[in-house]
Amino acid sequence: MKCSRTLIACAGAGFLTILGPSVAAQQADDAAPKAEAKPGEPSVTHHSITLNGRTLQYTVTAGMMDLPDYEGEKRADVFYIAYTLDGDRAPSTRPLTFSFNGGPGSSSVWLHLGLLGPRRVDMGDAQGFGATPPYRLVDNEHCWLDLTDVVFIDPVGTGYSRPAEGVNKREFHGLEEDISSVGDFIRLWTSRNERWASPKFLIGESYGTTRAAGLSGYLQDTHGMFLNGIILVSPILDFQTARFDVGNDEPYWLYLPTYAATAFFHGKLQGDLARSLRQTVQAARDFAQNDYLRALARGDELPPAERDRIATRLSQLTGLSKEFILDTNLRIGLGSFCKGLLREQSRTVGRLDSRYRGIDRLDIGEGFEYDPSYSAIQGPYTATINDYIRRDLGFENDHPYEILTGRVNPWSYDRYENRYVNVSDTLRSAMSKNPALKVMVASGYYDFATPFFAAEYTISHLGLDPSLRSNIQIHHYEAGHMMYVRLEDLAALKADAAAFYADALPK
């Protein structure tokens, strides 16, 4: 795969073509005139990429869009980066995808420079373990521009997006507030760019899947915008499945297959459980939703002999000692597992991706000091997005680009006070009203933030009419939350997406 990039200044000041990663080319890139946007105007640059022998010319628009309220008063400046394929194409034949990440408080950088865009972060070896400073972008041989135009959205408070002067940030920082503001941006961008006739898709990751499910209803019911497809990467729609609260037993059995997958990866299992990841995961599924679930349901009434049998099997599946599991009352918390699995090696395992190992100051405790899998991606993605926006896309802004910020807190869940957030019924309703809507679920086996078995459980409990159940497809990958850091999964996800788009588009 070959990629060339041409930077064209908005005022026509000049352009540069880069042919390959040579030192001379890099020096020329460093000295090149940059595309500069006038204040208040987007920066527009033109590029090309060759995928599988086909050269695609495309335009990138990076800018801020005023987000007005219903009366037209400015509420916020929303930063976006739009990739559109060049050529005289009818909107009705060119898909359009809106992309965002989660947090809440995350910019769109992860899906942008990890999965969808024509440039991706070089994460080192094929497993995504070897990135070293100062980090760099490389051509994304599995980008999605041959499938769809893509608009990356940074919700208010993330990236460069900010509330307008005098507007309280609380108007955006909540479940319903976020859904409506992002939905209003999608409607306005679609109108201004004359794309109402295009097949429309959403792709969200993590809390972005919560947002996507909410948008499936908001866009239909408020703006009359019916979608062709939604891609849920590392989804969480029902928060009860991932909250280790006293009295809530759901996470303990729903996390078990991910515990087993993690123990398998780190060589902590024995016998048949050490031979095949998928067979081990299936064994954990079977035990979790049968014997283990029944044991948790009995609580203190569980007989001692049965408690001992359950603990023995949990030990076999997790690599933790039977005594440790009995001490947890058969309820292995996430922090305890991540800290305890490799304790004798003085290592922890990651939350976003449990393949990664961390080093704490002490081996005691019930949780790690930091998530080694987030540390592995934070630096590379932060450096490259800041460089890419200015150097390649010619957009300048002196505000911090908020990668994953806590400034959006406190996040409001007013509608769900005294109960768990659950947007799955919004998705069910949207699919019932729009039977053409297709949904793709992508989950990593080593993801503790949004475990794959919890996603499967949520999907199987949507209450969809039987005629609509085939509209949902589920795919699994051998990495974590950001499964695309592993090159094999980057390629597999692109192949699965290509089939999904083909299925969801009008015939």
Q: How would you sum up this structure in a few lines?
A:
With 507 residues, this protein is an alpha/beta fold. 35% of the residues lie in helices and 18% in strands.
H-E order: EEHEEEEHEEEEHEHEHHHHHHEEHHEHEH
Specify the overall morphology. globular
Q: Return residue spans where pLDDT drops below 50 for at least 5 consecutive residues.
A: 1-35
* Average residue-wise pLDDT: 93
| Gyration radius, in Å | 23 Å
Q: Into how many domains do the coordinates divide?
A: 2
CATH topology of the largest domain: the name is: Rossmann fold
Strand content: 15-25%
Structural class: alpha/beta
DSSP strand tally = 16
Word description of this protein:
The chain is an alpha/beta fold and 507 residues long. The protein folds into two domains: 76-240 and 378-404 and 425-504, Rossmann fold (3-Layer(aba) Sandwich); 249-373, no CATH class. The chain is 35% helix and 18% strand. The strands form three sheets. Strands 1, 2, 3, 4, 5, 6, 9, 10, 11, 12, 15 and 16 form a twelve-stranded mixed beta sheet that branches. Helix 13 links the parallel strand 15 and strand 16.
Write the layout of secondary structure elements.
Layout: E1 3-6, E2 17-19, H1 23-31, E3 43-51, E4 54-68, E5 74-85, E6 96-100, H2 109-116, E7 119-121, E8 137-139, E9 149-153, E10 162-163, H3 175-192, E11 200-206, H4 207-223, E12 229-235, H5 250-254, H6 256-265, H7 277-298, H8 304-318, H9 322-327, H10 334-340, E13 348-349, E14 357-358, H11 372-392, H12 424-433, E15 438-444, H13 452-460, E16 472-477, H14 487-504
Parallel strand pairs: 6-9, 6-11, 11-12, 12-15, 15-16
Antiparallel strand pairs: 1-2, 1-3, 3-4, 4-5, 5-9, 5-10, 7-8, 13-14
